[in-house]
Amino acid sequence: MQTVAVIGAGQMGSGIAQTSAQFGYRVLLADVTVELAEKAKAKIGKDLHKLVARDKISVAEAEASIARITPVGDYAAFAEASLIIEAATEREDIKAKIFAEAAKVLAPDAILASNTSSIPITRMAAGSSDPKRFIGLHFFNPVPVMKLIEVIPGLATAPETVARTRAFAESLGKQVVLSEDEPGFVVNRILVPMLNEAVFALGQGTASIADIDMGCRLGLNHPMGPLELADFIGLDTCLDIVRVLHSTTGDSKYRPAPLLMKYVEAGWLGRKTGRGFYDYTGDVPVPTR
Ligand code: 3HC
Predict the structure, then answer these.
(1) CATH of the domain at 253
(2) pLDDT of residue 289
(3) Catalytic annotation present for 138
(4) Which CATH number goes with the domain that contains 136?
(5) What is the reported pLDDT for 2?
(6) In angstroms, what is the span from residue 115 Cα to ligand 1's centroid?
């Protein structure tokens, strides 16, 4: 059984860990503390049992997947991993520290991948121990459900690294889009300006939250409206991405919507904090404007 290490046990890291375990990989899951990784494993267990209750998977499959996940308190065991996936906070300084620590245990033929949603891969690779074995591996939320993974080689990434990473992504039952290392890659380059534009529209009083979202749900056949989706992704993450698009291109079309910045400053980050454009504290989300 191949071993995959996942760094970051938040929404994305947990989804990557769950999916990898469901597809037969042994998973080492790390966060800032082992307690956080253990908490994430418990949540994954609950999610898998929900799938059992809905007859999607058997109890045995759920239990086997849970058993394949080992929360760890440090990176020592990562020496056994053929792939280390970083899915930490979208901050380059934090990621750089993680890559430096991971380099100490990275096996000679192992790959180091980042699930960054927008930070340039070439730049992060240059600070890693072996840029040939560094790559972008971008999952979509919720990871167990979404069928896409973007694979993003940096300038120095070796073709063998690209081939092995693509094979891993496909082994999880996902489709792969290969993207050049351009800001936002393919999907976020298109999605995040749309979400930002929806916040501009809200801030300018074009329509209410409910109507902006209904407009896109019914008018475009999107499963979620843009404000609902921004809340789902996390408004801080959306702002981080739009800022990266803005700073790396210098193009004013990517300037963040002032209302998005205000919400983040207020700590209204979306579903994860119980409030974003919607209030999530009751049984159903309620628009706040
Ligand atoms: N594990 C496995 N399966 C799960 C799951 C989990 N943790 N959570 C949900 N599912 C499955 C359910 O079993 C269900 O399966 P079924 O259709 O076979 O019955 C299916 O997913 C749908 O779940 P629900 O019925 O609970 O919920 P909805 O039908 O309301 O769908 C949604 C929820 C899938 C989130 C849908 O609203 C959606 O697709 N929204 C858009 C998501 C999106 O755009 N994501 C991309 C964000 S961008 C991104 O991630 C990039 C980043 O860099 C910003």
Answers:
(1) 1.10.1040.10
(2) 87
(3) yes
(4) 3.40.50.720
(5) 95
(6) 18
pTM of the prediction? 0.95
Tell me the residue length of the chain: 289
Query: Do both 75 and 212 map to the same domain?
Result: no
1 pLDDT more than 80: no
Name the residue range of residue 258's domain.
Answer: 188-287
Are 47 and 136 within one domain?
yes
Specify whether 44 is located in the same domain as 94.
yes
pLDDT at position 251, please?
Answer: 97
Q: Which among 243, 28, 251 has a CA at the least distance from the CA of 117? A: 243
Q: Looking at the structure, do residues 82 and 105 belong to the same domain, yes or no?
A: yes
DSSP letter at 111 equals E
Is the predicted pLDDT of residue 79 greater than 90, yes or no? Answer: yes
Active site residue 170: no
Give percent of the chain above pLDDT 70: 100
Q: Provide the 8-state DSSP code for 270.
A: B
163 falls within a domain: yes
Q: Of the listed 20, 118, 188, 196, which one is catalytic? A: 188
117 annotated active-site: yes
Q: Is 101 exposed, middle or buried (0-12, 13-18, 19+ CB in 10 A)?
A: middle
